[in-house]
Amino acid sequence: MGHTVICRRLSKTYHQDAIAVRALSEVDLDVPKGDFVCLSGPSGSGKTTLLNLIGGLDAPTSGEITVDGQRVDLMTQAQLATMRLKHLGFVFQAYNLIPVLTGQENVEFVMQLQGIGRKERRARAQAILKEVGLERLENRRPAKLSGGQQQRVAVARAIVSGPSLVLADEPTANLDSENGEMLLELMGRMNQEHGVTFIIATHEQLVMDHARRLIHLHDGRIVSDELQR
Amino acid sequence: MSALNLSLLYTLAWRNVWRNRRRTLVILLAIAFGIWSMVTLAAIMRGMIEQQVDNTINNLTGHIQVHAVGYRDDPSIDNSMLSPGPSMLKVLRSEDVRAWATRVRVPAVVASERESTGVTLVGIDPKAEQGLSFIAKAVTEGRYLQSPGDQGLLLGRKLAERLETSLGKRVVLMSQDIDNEIADRGFRVTGIFDAKMEATETGFVFVGRTLAQEMLKLGARVSELALVVEDRQDLDAILERLANAAQGLDVQPWTKLEPLLVLTVKMYDATMLIWFVVVFLAMCFGLVNTLLMAVFERTREIGLFQALGMRPRFILSQVMLESLTLLLTGLVIGNVLAWATIAYLGDGLNLSAFAKGLEWAGMSSVIYPLAAASDVVMANLLVIVLGIIASLYPAWRAARYVPVEAITRT
């Protein structure tokens, strides 16, 4: 089995005024295709930074990142945008959806950017919304959806365009335990049924319990990396 | 950019525009008011300009005049010319010439039993002047001249008051004849005319052309030939043909005969352009501020767009399209309001309170707005093109966001 993500000696240092803050230090990481990985650790441990670097939302200070065989750290902004469009899905803690688009339009958004025709787009969006249990709420705008429903739309959007990797940053942080559980089951199912690789950054035990592989970070370094199942 | 992406961009732009209705309505109102003022004021000014030009052309100038060389510097009897020959007549009788006439036009003195004053004596062919100059329709008391040999005389109302004379009374005209002798002749006032400008009423006295020629011993000679054409825009072609036919004579268009008027027209055009730019600048600050606020408020959303794979140029296009949507909506409202205002003022805008000043400038006291396509297009293009250029800054800022900073912005 190949690897979706490969990180080598990955470091990131932020500069706040004259102070250098090392957010990530010499991280080596391999994530095989179809894995379901949880990055855990306290605040400031570097899990979100690692997620952002893998997703090309931020540039590393040094080191290499390869996603689906492409060197992310060497790409221009336009190339990164294309890479994110074709290979990645994102689920954030909040502000996941575009407020002026309905649930279905949000799900169709990435496919529309990819140039997929209206008919196919609609069919795929409706199928995935049914899969996440939101087929009756497709025409509601985000403000009319609950937090859990919004996150499910975000997951649907993240996987509907067929990415090889979904990056989720604290996806359950704003949800109650019931909705959190439901979301994790959904992501687990998507991982198993669609073969999508998931990397989730979290500090919640519930999420860690669902992961196949748990990577613990502390002070910007991987301190443990264990298979749970 | 594909049609799919354009449709997405347009959906986002239109819905984003209406996210903050109050702010959008305020900027739409500003754009609409701006374009309304541009188009309406331009129409009023264009109406004033056209009336001023028409008044001047009707006021004996015509579109083209032919004189003996030297007449324009010294409009005396010495600089007279022969009546038009066959080659000139061929041009004058062509379809694109609406009316033409020859005139005797010399300096003279008119005297009543009480007063005398210097005037310009104009000997006219009354029928030929119809459709050429104002005089045929300006007689409001008494009668217009019947023929070139009519024995009567037409006086302006103000001049009649100044001479303390009236309809039916006799006045004496004095001028210098072709032999440099004083020529005088008594005329009965058969008509009083009103003109748009007081200077016209006090400056001209009209008699039959044949009588003027007899009095000044001119024979068949005349001082000037004036003509109006069917379409003022086609003047150059006729001017060239007439100049070729009138060899040895001075053939000039109205633009050369009335340089002050041409300067005034240019001044109006420049004033309009300045007004357009001033209004646009006021509008532009509002537009850029609105877009900057919108971009700033949506920083996280723009970060999300970036995370989902939207390219920077797509984000730039989205903000630009939002600006274009605002501009076009404002322009439609503004143009409709302007059109309604111009239609409402179709019967004329009465500025009689300022009539004296307008008259001095050669204009009428009632202004008829004229919406010239070129002015409307220029105002709209200016707003759209400069508006888009002004929107580049907020759009560029949006496209330049660093994804990780945008998405974590609180």
Task: Let me know the number of strands of chain A.
Answer: 10
Q: What's the shape of chain A?
A: globular
Q: Report the CATH architecture of chain A.
A: 3-Layer(aba) Sandwich
- Adjacency order of strands in the biggest sheet of chain B: 2-3-8-5-7-6
Write the element-wise H/E pattern of chain A from the N-terminal end onward. EEEHEEHEHHHEHEHEE
Helix content of chain B: 40-55%
What is the H-and-E element order of chain B?
Answer: HHEHEEHHEEHEEHEHEHEHHHHEHEHH
Gyration radius from CA atoms of chain B, angstroms: 31 Å
Number of helices of chain A: 7
Task: Please summarize the sheet with the most strands of chain A.
Answer: 6 strands, mixed
Account of the protein in words:
The complex is a heterodimer of chains A (229) and B (410). Chain A is of the alpha/beta class. Chain A has a single domain (33-60, 69-227), classed as Rossmann fold, CATH 3.40.50.300. Chain A has seven helices and ten strands. In chain A, strands 6-7-8-3-9-10 form a six-stranded mixed β-sheet, with helices on both faces. In chain A, helix 5 (147-160) packs parallel to helix 6. The longest helix of chain A has 18 residues, at 177-194. The radius of gyration of chain A is 17 Å and the shape is globular. The two termini of chain A are 18 Å apart. Chain B is an alpha+beta fold and 410 residues long. Helices cover 55% and strands 19% of the residues of chain B. In chain B, helix 1 (3-17) packs across helix 13.
